[in-house]
């Protein structure tokens, strides 16, 4: 039976069919739906880990003990998990271990567009790259097989357009979920220097055998066509090339570490002109050039952003491979520019009040990653920086120690999921090193940005079971923070008072701004109404950046279909024109 | 040999573009097409613009539609129709829901919502179909069915039999909403 599946759903299906016993990950677009789909199969144990490093370690443990394991994360998650990854290449596996890295060329929802193919080469693990959902599913099975046969973790690298595109997948029957026998073997698994050196040599041997395998694996194949033009490609770019140059010869690389160097040489020798079509870095191109082969790659194709068949076609026209298309009439000339429609904090979002207040107090705010990063955009503009998950606290501490003028004027803001991911150690450092930093934990009781996943603070697991809820106040106190305050971020007066007090106070402070995500707990109160007589058109309410509020003819109005009655605008309005619908606000 | 058809659905997070694309994909499969579909999630729920690309054909390679390639654009909102117009193929059809949803830069007075979008599109494109899907959906009994009104209008533009559409709709929407959605589909198909 065939089904239309996204790449992510296909990977989940693959894990189910090919005997995965355990799966772990941390949410991150475009990888999140893999575990969300897999969790629906009763037979497979799945969990959200607090971060990617822990997720990979969970997978490494399961694989060492003999189970097949799948670990999922977005591309930047592999940075967090890099430490165990590099040494897991040394130890190898027992049950198969596949690590899915979901890259995001074009940065649809990421802070960078790093090309994780280099990780496979750097860490010396095998890498597979699917170009549609069927391949994504099949490569889970192949990856597990390779992992066991060559005693190596396998990275399955997908990109946004593979993860989030749907195509037809042939469903198979699930195979057995076997656990291989485990025997203690310290020379393989205990990486002290003496044993590490042995495994380093073994790793070189394993990579050499893998390189031989790469020459004959069915996922590296040639589509024979006209030999005037040959193209080497992998991943989604393969689909663009097939569409644009249906008659050309194509070497499609499904296994991109190690590369099949002989196959590449042989292919190159048969075609007249050779092109490499790959998104992001010249990963294939560099290795092909090292073989002394003449090839056109990044001098023609961009190193930034996502490709499309439109772009690939334009580039082959530029190179003279394709004839220039007839000049199409431009039917868009003279049309007005469409104003952007950026994502915004939802009506009733508990983060809004915090950024409004921080901006008002003119504080320097180191930010972090989550929905709340939107609080840095106009008109809220309540954040100065965003680098990576967890960075806010370390950065605020660095400012506090280095720049006297900003002491007591710097605040870190971090979401609950992000704090548990990688904020705890930053806070521990701030306490240990005598910081005067103030940290605001935006505790909306969920991982909202990536679609509301549970985490150790929510009291529920990925499989839907109950779980202990970490007590953030006690956790911060245990780290040594003396001053911990809990506030409701919809109470602007108290929020402001607490932020002023805590930034002024010596020593590190934590403010927990607690209120569930407006999408999570939908209990809308009556909408705010505007007294048009009283409204003076001062536009104070617009500073909240609420999608429900607009001003026409110098009078504010509130869209009753969007407003959930959070009453922030009522508190901000200086003329008393905004009327809250409920008494308890 | 099935003629390839590329459909671009554009709108604003929360307008139900995903359900509409699901029904289209199911209908296309039942009609014997190979289907690929691509959508950008991520920030969609936060009121950003959303786009779903659906490609049908004998054998589809790329899941994406490039500029100037869409046979049909189904625009759930006027401004999004304007934004994605360059993706319409010469001679293609654009179906526009005449609803306006103001983006925050417009609400905040930092940008203007362009005047007379539909008129300007009509000056440049021969095949433009405009409907008030929201109003029709409300008349059918549920404002949320505006997406299915639009789907009804789309169905008329594609070489897929009506019976197949109806089965795809029934297989995709929850049973308790089926009646409303069937009405909505009929309303759209009449436009
Ligand atoms: C290392 C890494 N992993 C995952 C992500 C994807 N990601 C971005 S923000 C976020 C979590 C946001 O949750 P939270 O901090 O609770 O903030 P909220 O969105 O709920 O406001 C995740 C998982 C990332 N950017 N970097």
CATH architecture of chain B: 3-Layer(aba) Sandwich
Number of domains of chain B: 1
CATH topology of chain B: Pyruvate-ferredoxin Oxidoreductase, domain 3
* Helical residues, percent of chain A: 25-40%
Name of the CATH superfamily of chain B: Pyruvate-ferredoxin oxidoreductase, PFOR, domain III
Proportion in β-strands of chain A: 15-25%
* Sequence stretches where pLDDT stays below 50 over 5 or more residues of chain B: none
Portion in strands of chain B: 15-25%
Query: What is the CATH topology classification name of the largest domain in chain A?
Result: Rossmann fold
Bin the helical content of chain B.
Answer: 25-40%
Q: What is the H level of CATH, i.e. the homologous superfamily of the largest domain in chain A?
A: Thiamin diphosphate (ThDP)-binding fold, Pyr/PP domains
The unique ligands bound to this protein are: thiamine diphosphate
Overall SS class of chain B: alpha/beta
What do you see in this structure?
The complex is a heterodimer of chains A (585) and B (191). In chain A, helix 18 links the parallel strand 17 (483-487) and strand 18 (509-514). Chain A is an alpha/beta fold and 585 residues long. Helices cover 35% and strands 18% of the residues of chain A. In chain A, helix 1 packs across helix 6, helix 14 (352-360) packs across helix 18 and helix 15 (391-402) runs parallel beside helix 16 (416-432). Chain A starts with a strand and ends in a 6-residue tail after the last strand. Chain A has 4 domains: 2-216, Thiamin diphosphate (ThDP)-binding fold, Pyr/PP domains (Rossmann fold); 220-318, Rossmann fold; 352-514, Thiamin diphosphate (ThDP)-binding fold, Pyr/PP domains (Rossmann fold, 3-Layer(aba) Sandwich), CATH 3.40.50; 529-579, Alpha-Beta Plaits (2-Layer Sandwich). Chain B has helices at 17-30, 78-84, 104-107, 117-124, 133-140, 146-155, 162-172, 178-189; strands spanning 5-12, 34-39, 49-57, 70-75, 88-97, 127-131. The two termini of chain B are 29 Å apart. Chain B has 8 helices and 6 strands; from the N terminus they run βαβββαβααβαααα. At the A-B interface, strand 8, helix 10, helix 13 and strand 20 of A face helix 1, strand 2, helix 2, helix 3 and helix 4 of B. The complex binds thiamine diphosphate. Thiamine diphosphate binds at residues 26-28, 52, 74, 76-77, 80, 369-372, 389, 415-418, 442, 444, 446-450 of chain A.
């Amino acid at each position: 039976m065939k089904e239309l599946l996204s790449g992510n759903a296909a990977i989940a299906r693959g894990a189910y069919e090919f005997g995965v016993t355990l799966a772990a990950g941390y949410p991150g677009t475009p990888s999140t739906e893999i575990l969300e789909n897999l969790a629906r199969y009763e037979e497979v144990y799945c969990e959200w880990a607090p971060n990617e490093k822990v997720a990979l370690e969970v997978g490494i443990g399961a694989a060492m003990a003999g189970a097949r394991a799948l670990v999922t994360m977005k591309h930047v998650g592999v940075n967090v998990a890099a430490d165990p990854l590099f040494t897991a290449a040394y130890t190898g596996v027992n049950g198969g271990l596949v690590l899915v890295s979901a890259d995001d060329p074009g940065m649809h929802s990421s802070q960078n567009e790093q090309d994780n193919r280099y990780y496979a080469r750097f860490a010396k693990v095998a890498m597979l790259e699917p170009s549609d959902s069927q391949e994504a599913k099949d490569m889970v099975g192949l990856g597990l097989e390779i992992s066991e046969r060559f005693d190596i973790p396998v990275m399955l690298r997908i990109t946004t357009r593979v993860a989030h595109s749907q195509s037809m997948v042939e469903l198979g029957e699930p195979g057995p979920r076997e656990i291989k026998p485990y025997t203690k073997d310290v020379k393989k698994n205990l990486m002290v220097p003496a044993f590490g050196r042995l495994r380093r040599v073994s790793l070189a041997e394993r990579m050499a055998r893998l390189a031989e395998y790469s020459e004959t694996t069915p996922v590296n194949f040639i589509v024979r066509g006209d030999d005037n033009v040959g193209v080497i490609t992998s991943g989604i770019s393969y689909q663009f090339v097939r569409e644009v140059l249906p008659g050309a010869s194509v070497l499609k690389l499904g296994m991109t570490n190690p590369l099949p160097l002989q196959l590449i040489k042989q292919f190159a020798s048969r075609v007249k002109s050779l092109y490499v079509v790959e998104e992001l870095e010249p990963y294939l191109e560099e290795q092909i050039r090292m073989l002394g082969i003449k090839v056109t790659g990044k001098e023609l194709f961009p190193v930034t952003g996502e490709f499309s068949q439109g772009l690939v076609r334009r580039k082959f026209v530029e190179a003279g491979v394709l004839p220039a298309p007839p000049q199409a009439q431009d039917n868009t000339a003279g049309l007005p520019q469409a104003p952007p429609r950026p994502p915004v904090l939802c009506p009733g979002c508990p983060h809004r009040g915090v950024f409004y207040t921080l901006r008002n107090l003119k504080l320097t705010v180191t930010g972090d990653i989550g929905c709340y990063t939107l609080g840095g955009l106009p008109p809220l503009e309540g954040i100065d920086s965003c680098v990576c998950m967890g960075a806010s606290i370390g950065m605020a501490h660095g400012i506090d120690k280095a720049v006297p003028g900003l002491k007591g004027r710097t605040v870190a803001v971090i979401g609950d999921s992000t704090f548990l991911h990688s904020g705890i150690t930053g806070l521990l450092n701030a306490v240990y090193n005598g910081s005067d930093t103030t940290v605001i934990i935006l505790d909306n009781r969920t991982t909202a940005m990536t679609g509301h996943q549970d985490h150790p603070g929510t009291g529920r697991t990925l499989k839907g079971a109950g779980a202990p809820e970490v007590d953030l106040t006690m956790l911060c106190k245990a780290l040594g923070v003396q001053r911990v305050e809990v506030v409701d971020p919809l109470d602007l007066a108290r929020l402001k008072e607490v932020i002023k007090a805590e930034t002024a106070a010596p020593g590190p402070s934590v403010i927990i701004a607690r209120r569930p995500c407006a999408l999570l707990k939908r209990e809308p109160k009556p909408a705010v109404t505007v007294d048009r007589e009283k409204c003076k058109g001062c536009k104070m309410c617009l500073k909240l950046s609420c999608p429900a509020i607009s001003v026409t003819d110098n009078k504010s109005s509130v869209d009753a279909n969007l407003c959930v009655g959070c009453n922030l605008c009522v508190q901000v309005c200086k003329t008393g024109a905004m009327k809250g619908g409920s008494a308890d606000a | 040999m099935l003629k390839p058809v590329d459909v671009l659905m554009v709108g604003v997070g929360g307008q139900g573009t995903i359900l509409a694309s699901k029904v289209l994909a199911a209908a296309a499969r039942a009609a014997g097409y190979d289907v690929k579909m691509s959508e950008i999630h991520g920030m969609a729920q936060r009121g950003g613009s959303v786009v779903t690309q659906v490609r049908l054909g004998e054998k589809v390679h790329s899941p994406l539609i490039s500029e100037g390639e869409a046979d049909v654009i189904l625009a759930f909102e006027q401004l999004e129709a304007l934004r994605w117009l360059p993706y319409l193929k010469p001679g293609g059809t654009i179906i526009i829901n005449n609803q306006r949803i103001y983006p925050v830069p417009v609400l905040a007075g930092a940008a203007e919502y362009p005047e007379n979008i539909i008129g300007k599109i009509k000056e440049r494109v021969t095949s433009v179909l405009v409907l008030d899907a929201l109003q029709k959906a409300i008349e059918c009994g549920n404002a949320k069915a505006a997406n299915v009104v639009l789907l009804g209008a789309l169905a008329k533009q594609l070489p897929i039999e009506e019976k197949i559409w109806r089965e795809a709709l029934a297989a995709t929407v929850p049973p308790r909403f089926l009646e409303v959605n069937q009405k909505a589909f009929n309303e759209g198909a009449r436009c």
